[in-house]
Inverse folding.
């Protein structure tokens, strides 16, 4: 379906609708044309709103203008709410570059700073981004693990304090809050234990406010669903998509050592990723919500 106006949206309405209707919008990390295509085409087939998340590492690999253009084409082709989200950005300069290109959803990650500095940095980004009609997510507490170039040692990670969360949201003016409740970026060495009591307290402090679950790869579906029932309206998934894509590609090339056509060898990789994207959309219960 060809939609005439590109429909890259901010995340305000999609997250509020998700909150009210009890599901979450999945945010899938994309890296190149193929991953954008897989995510958007699968979301369109399942009629799910979708967030395409790109880290600074992805932007330096693919180029901010290329990523922006790819997502705009995707939004022209498919009549579902699509947001391009700047995942884990740490500088206002990088954020501004994408805002100038038309991005409408931003995460400023100043969680490695102390509370007051975190607030000051986030506030500055909120003031800028809101002028562009863009929404802002920030993190309080700190997730461990690895997300592209962002590596946080377990000893430096800490959970979100519910009372500070309310103050943080009020003083910064953000539109959604990434919470640290026991998830981590990347693969888990042992079964993750999520602190649902803490999440419940955060929700009680911030009734009606969209919370974000980072590091959802490797979290059992029932735990993700429980997080959704406790106010997480955006669920971030990266690692669990990268693995099947890479495995299928590797297997294909091993089985077909003469293969040299990217249009052919990318196909099984895309198919493997598509299956996981569909599974995660259903886990988030966002299918049929676009
Ligand atoms: P995972 O790679 O653990 O799924 O984390 C994704 C994420 O939170 C991106 O910000």
């Amino acid at each position: 379906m060809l939609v005439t106006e590109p429909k890259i949206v901010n995340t305000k309405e999609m997250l509020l609708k998700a909150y009210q209707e009890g599901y979450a919008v999945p945010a899938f990390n994309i890296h190149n044309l193929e991953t954008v295509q897989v995510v958007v085409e699968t979301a369109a087939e399942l009629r799910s709103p979708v967030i395409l998340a790109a880290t600074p590492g992805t932007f330096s690999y693919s180029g901010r203008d290329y990523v922006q253009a790819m997502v705009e084409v995707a939004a022209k082709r498919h009549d579902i709410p699509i947001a391009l989200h700047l995942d884990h950005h740490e500088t206002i300069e990088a954020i501004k570059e994408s805002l100038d290109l038309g991005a409408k959803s931003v995460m400023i990650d100043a969680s490695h700073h102390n509370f007051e500095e975190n607030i000051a940095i986030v506030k500055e980004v909120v003031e800028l981004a809101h002028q562009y009609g863009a929404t802002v997510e920030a993190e309080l507490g700190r997730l461990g693990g690895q997300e592209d170039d962002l590596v946080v040692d377990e000893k430096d990670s800490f959970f979100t304090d519910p009372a500070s969360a309310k103050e943080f949201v009020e003083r910064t003016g953000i539109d959604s809050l990434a919470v640290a409740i026991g998830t981590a970026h990347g693969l888990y060495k042992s079964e993750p234990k999520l602190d649902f009591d803490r999440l419940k307290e955060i929700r009680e402090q911030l009734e009606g406010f969209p919370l974000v679950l980072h590091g959802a790869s490797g979290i059992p579906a029932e735990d993700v669903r429980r997080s959704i029932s406790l106010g997480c309206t955006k669920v971030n998934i990266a690692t669990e998509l990268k693995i099947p894509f890479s495995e299928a590609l590797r297997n294909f090339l091993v089985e077909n050592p003469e293969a040299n056509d990217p249009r052919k060898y990318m196909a099984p990789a895309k198919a493997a990723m598509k299956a996981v994207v569909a599974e995660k959309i259903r886990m988030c219960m966002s299918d049929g919500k676009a």
